[in-house]
Amino acid sequence: xxxxxxxxxxxxxxxxxxxxxxxxxxxxxxxxxxxxxxxxxxxxxxxxxxxxxxxxxxxxxxxxxxxxxxxxxxxxxxxxxxxxxxxxxxxxxxxxxxxxxxxxxxxxxxxxxxxxxxxxxxxxxxxxxxxxxxxxxxxxxxxxxxxxxxxxxxxxxxxxxxxxxxxxxxxxxxxxxxxxxxxxxxxxxxxxxxxxxxxxxxxxxxxxxxxx
Amino acid sequence: xxxxxxxxxxxxxxxxxxxxxxxxxxxxxxxxxxxxxxxxxxxxxxxxxxxxxxxxxxxxxxxxxxxxxxxxxxxxxxxxxxxxxxxxxxxxxxxxxxxxxxxxxxxxxxxxxxxxxxxxxxxxxxxxxxxxxxxxxxxxxxxxxxxxxxxxxxxxxxxxxxxxxxxxxxxxxxxxxxxxxxxxxxxxxxxxxxxxxxxxxxxxxxxxxxxxxxxxxxxxxxxxxxx
Lengths: 212, 227
Hints:
Chain A is built from six helices and ten strands; from the N terminus they run E-E-E-H-E-E-H-E-H-E-H-H-E-H-E-E. Chain A is of the alpha/beta class. Chain A has a domain of 105 residues: Rossmann fold (3-Layer(aba) Sandwich), CATH 3.40.50.300. The longest helix of chain A is centred in the last third of the chain and has 16 residues. Chain A starts with 10 loop residues before the first strand and ends with a strand. Chain B is an all-alpha fold. Chain B has one domain. Chain B is built from ten helices and one strand; from the N terminus they run βαααααααααα. In chain B, helix 2 packs antiparallel against helix 3 and helix 3 packs antiparallel against helix 6. The model of chain B has no long low-confidence stretch (mean pLDDT 91). Classes of the chains: A alpha/beta, B mainly alpha. The interface between A and B is medium-sized, with 35 and 30 residues.
């Protein structure tokens, strides 16, 4: 997985973004940009619009004001190019409970234009799920499901990771393993945009914090 | 690095949905049992008169097929919506229409295809002669994909709502009336020894219309429900 993710410089930028939910304005005039090797941590109280912001960045929600730009162009007009560089995990893990861990990983071919590896056993081992290859994912604990979701994400080649509370239900070793994976992703030119409730001890990464 | 094509993506969604459907047997088998029960209720309630049953047979089979298919639609998008895989499908760099078509095709393979096989058996139950069964099978072959396609639109629109099953039936059943009319008239005409190509052309046209427009409508409905 030591491949360089992006040949050219990539940027996701947001200009004068404003979003509302059920007729109440959540945030407005939000400006920031992410480029290669940067981690952006979005903070805010419950209900401040963190998830709405991430969904807007993914294009699920149409912003009330402003726009989201990928390489300087609106994400709606460059959907395919944007989607092939984007990995997203929301509140729900996006894994099928009726499939085994390995089957869930294999399914990733549908969600990417480029798979980094097909050595799925190795990937599961890396995410602390060795021995669960053929377990159905409904039999996994909440933390293990989160690990599996992140494992599915890690094998899809994409420069930009948008993660909603990636550390939810992960234990301390799980969090540390994930931080290592984030570190590697940033070093190879990736970008990460994530929300989190908790204060995270980052070693060797300087996150840019945005408060909503 | 392994490059994945649109075809790989289509195939993996298709295989995924068929595996899930076969593993979750109640979703797949229950509508078929419902279909058999509805069909057997008619000879039992109307009586064993050959002539009456033969006349009603195409209508009975078609109404039962439409109801059975609307029962099986509930889970088509709901589970994907709940576990977040729908977001992944819509964010895939591959065409969302292609992936949604794979889902609809898998629904047809699991609900429409077994129904057609059951009809071969149920024909004798309703005293339908072999020419009638043949025509009925062709109408079902042309018509059941339409049930899945139109049903998917309703499934997408009502995804995540309470009482979505009832709402789906109310939305789809009126749209399926032309299908019912042409299919039943085809079988009746075949029994009278008349030409049925006219009805087949209409059914074919309805199928082509549904194939081209339904995935588009489903995609828009899913985007509205997610936004």
